[in-house]
Amino acid sequence: MPLSLGGVTVTFDGVAAPLTYASTGQINLGVPWEVKQKTSTVMQVMLDGKLVTSRQFAVAASSPSLFVDTGGTSADGNDFFPAIVLNSDGTKNSFANPAQAGSWVTMFLNGASAYAGVVPPKTGSITDAAPIPIGISAGVMAGTTSLETGPLIPWPGVLAGLYQLPVRMRESTQSGTHVETLRVSVDGVPAAPLVYIDKVYQSAGLVWVIEGVYS
What we know:
Layout: E1 8-12, E2 15-16, E3 19-22, E4 27-29, E5 40-47, E6 50-58, E7 65-66, E8 81-82, E9 99-100, E10 104-110, E11 138-142, E12 145-147, E13 153-154, E14 162-168, E15 177-186, E16 189-190, E17 194-196, E18 199-201, E19 205-210
Parallel strand pairs: 8-19, 9-19
Antiparallel strand pairs: 1-2, 1-5, 3-4, 5-6, 7-10, 10-14, 11-12, 11-15, 13-14, 15-16, 15-19, 17-18
């Protein structure tokens, strides 16, 4: 991944961060793995080699967040967004395309700070087509029910540090399509609330399910 876009460079304790997007009002980047063993880090934003701003951040072992669809609606009244979820057949979950109750779906996470072995992947690298499962504990709750999960694994073909999580939806006897609100945690740390257009949304994602019991 590029370490500079349009003259923009961002460093953490002097280590350049991989950039995926840079504009006048927004910069998207990956925090370098090198900060993992520290308690704080100093971020510096530079334009054409000149310092624009600097800020110190605390460093956490994990600060997971769930990928959600902010283009959808949270009009259910609970301020939850639809989670980005793939059904068992690989298609995107939606009201018009719900998952079967009892089936496996795939969720996507950021900020787990996990990697296989003792050496992190190269900062800015792209994961392999056949990624190695990560030995870290991820949990998903639907109400008061703990759902079965598969191993947290790197998201193949994208920037290292993003992960996919298989989750088995609970069986249901409800008729028609209904929505499940899923809460995700990594090693006991809940997925952080989402701040979107100056409003804080809940740390959960909506998944649509249709009746159907699987063994």
